[in-house]
Amino acid sequence: MSSIAFENVSKSYREKIALENITLTFQPNKTTAVIGPSGSGKSTLLQLINGLIRPDNGQVSVFDKKINYDNLPELRKRMGYAVQGTGLFPHLTVKKNITLLAVLENWQDDRIAKRAQELVDLVNLPKDYFTKYPHELSGGEQQRVGLCRAMMLNPKIFLLDEAFGALDPMTRSEIHAEFIKLQKLEARTIILVTHDLREAFKLADQVVILNEAKIEQIGTRKEILETPASEFVKKFVHMQLEDDVS
Ligand code: ADP
After folding, report:
1. What is the pLDDT of residue 86?
2. 11, 73, 81, 155: which has the fewest Cβ within 10 Å?
3. H or E, element range at 48
4. % of the chain beyond a pLDDT of 70
């Protein structure tokens, strides 16, 4: 069984091909990083998973079932989605931001309180932050709140689109540690779009390298470093890691 499967998926915007004939599976409870230059199709790939975009050809399946585009709310309930910035609601407290989806799902109050507490403990946010507003928090703290919100319903699939992009290196490295801890405690299928190969290698079990709408290579850190599948991969890796090489 796969969590998500792409079968010969293509998507164009007018004459611009964003993804061309992509076949790819995402294994349950593993983290996959999707990386590539700007415009290579990363966001399109992510939005094909949550049904925001429909393929022109081919099909996308989630938990072995073709996506039912007539019932996207059902699909999205099973997916957490965190984007760059965090997308927190500025006029809602931290607690309300985190618990919003559960309230909409009519969860009982005590269940909501228990899960919210569990999540802030997991990401190391003090409980007195519940009553604060997003603007009173640092970027890293806001990011943690964003992660809690995306995990509230304990989705089996977690989509992260450049979610750590705007953070300074220290905070980023702290959030990475939280991420790894979370994945150990509550494993889920994670698709992480990034343009940082170091981040991809640190967090992901497999890395998908996209270039001009196509997959250049799918592999582990070791496979990509030791047996790059193309000249593009070689150059891309060298460019991204050149600080280490020089
Ligand atoms: P990435 O996330 O890797 O930067 P995208 O998936 O956003 O790449 O985009 C892939 C290609 O499709 C790019 O050339 C982009 O300009 C084009 N594209 C993306 N969204 C649209 C859109 N809504 N309309 C027209 N072209 C688009």
Report:
1. 64
2. 73
3. helix 42-49
4. 96
Burial grade of 202 (CB within 10 A; 0-12, 13-18, 19 or more): middle
Q: What fold characterizes domain 1-78+158-170+189-246?
A: Rossmann fold (3.40.50)
Closest atom, ligand 1, to C-alpha of 213: 10
Count Cα neighbours of 211 within 13 Å in the Cβ-side half-sphere: 13
Distance CA 206, CA 221 (A): 7
Q: What is the per-residue pLDDT for 84?
A: 66
Tokens of 123: 């990401």
Based on its alpha-carbon atoms, the radius of gyration of the chain, rounded to whole angstroms, reads 18
| pLDDT given at position 166 | 66
Q: Which residue positions in the chain have pLDDT lower than 70?
A: 83-86, 166, 243-246
Distance (angstroms) between ligand 1 centre and the Cα of 103 equals 34
Q: Checking phi first, is residue 29 left (phi over 0); if not, alpha (psi -120 to 50) or beta?
A: left
The binding-site residues of ligand 1, defined as CB within 6 angstroms of any ligand atom, are 13, 16, 18, 36, 38-44
Nearest alpha carbon, ligand 1 atom 23: 13
pLDDT computed for residue 243 by the predictor: 64
* Spacing of C-alpha 171 from chain mean position: 18
Residue ranges per structural domain of the chain: 1-78+158-170+189-246
- Ligand 1, residues 9, 44, 46, 208: which to mutate, most atoms within 8 A of Cβ? 44
- Give the separation between CA 14 and CA 8, rounded to whole angstroms: 19
**Identity (one letter) of the amino acid at 40?**
S
